[in-house]
Structures are given as structure tokens and as C-alpha cells.
Task: structure prediction
Amino acid sequence: MAYVELKGLNKSFAGKPAVRDFRLSMEKGEFVSLLGPSGCGKSTTLRMVAGFEEPDSGEAWLGDQNVLDLPPHRRGMGMVFQSYALFPHLTAWNNVAFGLRIAGRPAAEIRRRVPELLELVGLREAGGQYPRQLSGGQQQRVALARALAIEPRVLLLDEPLSALDAVVRVTLREEIRRIQTALGITTLYVTHDQEEALAISDRVVVMHDGGVEQVGTPEAVYAEPATRFVATFIGKINQLTGVIERAAEGWVRWGNHRLAVPSAATAGLADGREVVVLVRPEAVMVTPPGAEGPTGDNRVPASIEIVTFLGPVTRLSLTMDGRPFVADVTTGDRGRFHRGAPVQIVFPAAACRVLAVDRAGGPR
Amino acid sequence: MKGRAAWRILMLGLFLAFMLGPILATVLFSVSIRWDRTIWPEGFTLRWWQAVTARSAFQDTLLNSLAVAAATVAVSVALVTPTAYWAHLRAPRAKPWIEFLAIVPFGLPGVVLALGLIRFYSGVPLPLINTPAILVAAYVVLTLPFMYRPLVSALEAVDARTLTEAAQSLGADEWQTLVRAILPNILPGVVNGSLLVFSTVFAEFTLANLLIGTRFKTFPIYLVEFTRFDARQASALAVISFLVAWLASVFIIWLVGRGEGPRETLAAR
Amino acid sequence: MIRGRRRVGWGAWLVLGPFFVFGVAFEVLPILTLVRSSFSTEDGWTLANFGRAFTPMMIASFRNSLQLSAVTAFLGVVGGTVVAYAIVTARRRFVRDALTALADVTANFGGAPLAFAFIITLGSTGVVTLLLKAVGVSLYPSFRIYSVSGLTIAYLYFQLPLMILLIVPALLGLRQEWREAATNLGATRAQYWLRVALPILAPSLLGSFLLLFANAFGAYATAWTLTGPDVNLVTVQIAALVRGEVQLDPTLADALALVSLGVMTACVVGYRWLATRPWRATP
Result:
């Protein structure tokens, strides 16, 4: 049985559904991220688990207990807030000790554990400081230590890094992951930053408009997006809208070209069905026009419109058959590409994902 | 959850009853023939209102209070507006002194100010004591914080500094800048302060009584006389007092509600 | 900053001049006169005036004023905070706005009319008195509106709304996340209030207490109208001396006034200092 089992959680605000039938199973010690744009319901879901929002329906099982029956202060879940929420009238030390004092732990134990926790988050010397004397990153570490102090069974983090600047965000997210792995705490993490989610999660739950689009490992969600939303939300992707020419062979007609996609991807779909072929920019090669290569690959002529330097990668914005296409090349190769140059885009069938477009116009 | 709602209703209900009770009682009392034996007034009449407003003293004191209040507002606005503006913008070194002078009256009880003024000006060969002029001057001092703070809030809210620079870049000199660029924009703050000053002065008893009470009677003095003389007519006067204060407050709240005035509130002593 | 101005031009002083002159003439000089007068007799600088000022009657007046101020300030703080909390947590916006407006308006209702309204309400033939008699509770003769107890109730009328206006911003400043964090860490409602909310509110509560204290200490009109010379308060004594009703030397009044001024100043300074306490500024 899973350690955490969320079933059928629903919540509406003023008649508008914010979370629709949310379900998730988590193993002990797993790090799961709820990822999505603002308003997708991820924070609401987390807050329902924490007890700060009351679900309209559903269950939340932790072990053999439905925590929804418990008031929020007895659920044994540690929470880290986006705004840190440190008590301004207490030092960092006393903030961390707060939960222990509430629980009536003996003073000797508190005196022993608080420094351990501060050490764990790398703030051994900062115990005597007040929140206003600490930087954002430091405050969030204190908040983490405070939440861990009560030895929660589940750790909940609500966009903990959104208020911090970029460099701090990267260091801190790695620390959070390191600490979480070391302690083996089951963790539910909410964020709108897909890079963050991909970098530190065991699994990612992509949410949109109150519903779950896809649940999977970061690699799965990236390489095999189940819906158009997931494909476009995570990373950059090219969308080529076409029609299935021969489902059994994996041929898709796109403009004047025939694209080869994995036959498994078109299996079960009818010929003539409208589909979207998805290709990641880094999965293509940009060669001079007419260059030769393996026969199975797709080869389409294009011309370069804009060359954008992004650091380690250079992004080429191209026009292919009058339609836009994006290809990423390593910057070392940049010298070969300039504006207006005619080139050839090469990508194997295996690099393509196919999603059926339903009659209403959206993906299935 | 339910228990908390009941508690809240109880608290707010008690609060409302305590706040509104005396006022409503006064209003009712002023129009009742007799109300000292029964829970509900015995009959209604406008006789007391007619009696007290018919006296010439009523009109005189009312006019006196209105005049003094108006004069105080005028002097206060004329004095404080350019000062607040200049201090805010051009003379930052003078600002602490100005703020000090503007905050002192907060800690100055009416009786102490009255004593000090009398003490000082008795020995000065200026015909100030025993004229309304000294009262206006005292009132301006007493209400300095009430005029200064809304003005400063307004100046900060409209970013007077940038407006001034814009006006200057277009060729306006200092006076033109103040009158044409700044004043129209801080008008809500000026009005807010003026209403506070007006209602405070209109209701003020202590200084009026001690400084020139025997020669120049203001409305509150008239009211206090009546409390010893005839309670029913006094209650009509009290209702008028409440009405003026209430109207001024409503104006201020309306201004603030329109999002134009800074929120300034004060209490009478 | 306006560039090009190296220092305060004389033009600026021309504008500021009238204000300073006014302030000096009607604020500073009167106070200084009191200071000088309190500390001097024909023989020169002395503290003797203060000694004479503290006759038993004057000491009694201070005790009464301090007591009345402390009691109404304390009741005002407690009652005002409770009502303010009820207002702030009301669900409907209309209720919150209307009650805040009520506090706004009634905070300005002081002085003679208010005293009079209480005579009508709680006097010997007042409506509430009659109401209570009808249900069997007899206020009089053990309670009289014309007494310190009556004054306390009357003072409370403007102390409560003042407190509400002062504390509402602080209550609104209690961030929701602190409540949630405390709950999440296991705190019950009571523990949250005891360990988080009240400590954070403490500077505001204390500062408001001082302001309410000063408010009551300096009040005159209400007391004069309600109890006249019967209740011995500092402001009443000073006013009597101003009117020359009690034939004592003028330096006595000045000494009294100066001590009152000292008390008020201490309160206002204390309030301002507390208002700038660090954890009021939330990150």
C-alpha cells in the first residue's frame, strides 16, 4: 500500500472548480512535485492536505489514517511557506524550537536538537538572529529547519523558492533535495518553475486548470508528454500539425512533406486523422542543404531567420515550409549559422511524439 | 465555528448598543415632553427645540463657533500648507523642527495651553488676551497635528517632488508650482485636514471657556450652561453638536472612500 | 532633490518664517513661561513651588487622574482589542466598513455633549437606569453618574473607538501565514494567541495604552460637564486656578501644569518609540 494516498480531492471557490478529482499515490521517502502555471490548483491541493483548505470531497490517507478527519495542528505535517512565515518576534533558534515547545518536549532535548537542525540547513551560527536580520535564503532555511523539527511524516513545501533570486534558488533547491534524501522524508513540493521540478523530483505531477495532465518521472514527462499542455509547458517544443497518411507505417503528411514517426505512435489511429507531431529543439541536427544521412531520418529544408545566443546553447529560429521551427545547437557550432542561410533539418523518427487532435481542436 | 460567530455578534452588538445608545437617548429626549419616569418617552414635542433656537444667544453662539472654526481653518491652511510643502521638498534640515512643533500639541492638554497663553500674554502689551484672536491662535496650535499630518501624507502620496520638477522644467517658479501644480493635487488632504480642524474646534470647550469664556461665548459653552439650567433644551443643543461632528466625519470617510484622502483619525479630549 | 540648491535659500525661510514665528509665539513661549514660572520665586530658581504644589489635595488630584486614566486606558485597550478583533474577522465587508466608520465618528464625540448624553442615559432618571429598575436591578443610590465611576463609563465612550482605530492596522498586520505556520507546528488557538499573536501585538498594545492614558489624563470638558468641581482631577484643578477661583499663587498652577505636561510628554514619547519597534516592519 502506498504511504500517502490522495483520492478524489475536489475544491471549488464561489462555484468555480479549483481542484478537480485529484488523485495521487506516494511511496515513503518519495519526492513529488506539483507543477503548473498559476491558478492550476497546485497550492490549493497542498493546502487541503495541510488542512488550511477544506475539500468539498475526497480522502487523504497517510498510512492507515484519513488525515482529513484531523484538525490541521494534529496532522504531523511540516510546512514551508513561500513567504517563509518566520515569527518575527523570535530568533531563528526559537523559531526552530517552536514546534518542540508546543509539543512539550523536555528542555534538554530542545537544546540538543535545535543546533543539530540549524547545522543541517547550514546556519549553525545564525541561531541568535532575528528574521529581519537574515537574507531571504537564510530565512527559508530556518523555515525548513523549523518544519523538520517536529519530525513530520510528510513535508509540504508551497513554492518555497519563488521569492528568492535566481542564484539562491538553484543552490537552495539542491540543498532541500539533499536534506530530504538524507532524512528520507516523504515530500510534496509545489512550484511553477519546471526546471526546478525536473531537477529535484522523483516524480512530477503536471497540473492545469484544476486537473492533472500527467504524472511521471521528470524524464518521462519531458520526453513523452501525454498532452499538448505538458509538451508546451515543459521545455520548448516544436509542434507540427499534420494528417496521418499511413498509420501502419507511421507516415504523417505535413505540408508538402511526409514525416516518419514511430509506427507505435500512430498505431490505433485512423488514416486521415489530424495529429500534432512534437519534436524537441535539441533532438534535431542542422546540416547544410542536401547533406546525406540514414534513410529513416526526416529531412526538411529550412532557412534561418534569427540566431539567439543563450549561453551553452544557441537557438536557431527557422522557417520550414513557411512555418516556424526552433532548433538548438551547441554554441561551439554557432559559427556555421547565420541569418538567411538555407539549411536542412534532420531528425530521426524516434525523436517524434505524436498526439491526436480531437474534433474540438485540442489534443486528446 | 458556530460558537465563534455567536461571540462575535454578541461583542459587536454590545459595542453598537454602547455607542449608539446615549446618542439615540439624547435625540429622543430632545423631542419628548417628559421622559424621567417611564422607559419610553411620554409624548413628543418640538417645544424644546423651538425654545432653545429662538433665543438670540443661540444664534450668536452658533455663529461664534462657526466663525472661530472657519477662521482657524483659514489660518491653519494658509500657515501649514506652504510650510509642509517647503519642508517636505526644499528644506529638509528644517523638517525635524517643523515636525517637532507639529507634534507637541498632541501632548498638550487644553488646560495647560490655556494657562501658558494667559501667563505669557498677560505680561505682553499686545491686545490679544480676551479677544477671539487669542482663541483662534490657540486653536491653530491645538489642531496643528490634525492639519499637518494629512498634508504630509498627501504630499507623499502624489509624489510632490516629481510634480515640482516637472512644473519647473516647464518654466513655473516656486509660487506658481505650489499653486498650480501641487495644491490641486493635494486638495483632498487639505480638505481632510480642514474637516478635522473644523469639527475639533467647533466642539472644543476647554480653551474657549478658560481663555475668553465670559466675553465671547461659543456653542459648547452655551451648551454647558444649559446643562445646569434646562436639560431638555440642552439636549437639543447636544444633538446639534453630534450632528456637526457626525457630518464632518461622514465627509472625511466619504473622501477617503473615494480613495483621494489619506486616512487620518483623531479623538477629542 | 532639486539640483542647484546648495543650502536652504533665504526664500525658503521667508515661507517657513510665519510658521516658526507662530509656533514659537503660541506654543513654545507659553510653555517656557510655565517652565520658568514653576522653577522660580522672588528669590530665584527653586523647586519650592513643586513642594508647595503637592498639598494633600493636589496629591489626591494626581492620584485620581492617574487612576482614572489608567483604568479607562486599560479597559479601553482590552475592550477595544476584543471589538477590533471582532470587526476585523467579520465575514462581510459591509459590516467591517460600517463598524470602522462608526469607530471613526464616535472617537470624535467627546466633551460636554457626551457627558450630557450619559446623564440622560444613566442619570437618576435616565433611560437605562429606568430599564434596569424595570427588570429589578436598582443602580441608585449606590451608583451615581456624577462620580468617578460615571466618569469612567463616559471616558470609555471615546477611549474604545480610539483603541479600535489604533489597533485595527496592527491586527491586520498579523499575517495569515504566521497563524498557519503555528497551527502546522502543532499550536492550538490558545497557544497561537499566547505565543505568537500577543507577543507580536505587544508594542502596539502598549503604545495604544500610553496614548489612551494621555488622552484621558488631559481631558477636561467631559469631567467638568459631568462632575464639575466634585471630582478632584488635575485638569479640573488647573482650570480652577486659571479662572482664579482658588486664591493661591500663580506659580502653583504653573507647577501643576508642568507636571501634567511631563506626564503627557512621557506618554507621547513612549507611544512614538513603541511605534517604531522592529518587528512591526514585516519583511
Remarks:
- The longest strand of chain C covers residues 40-41.
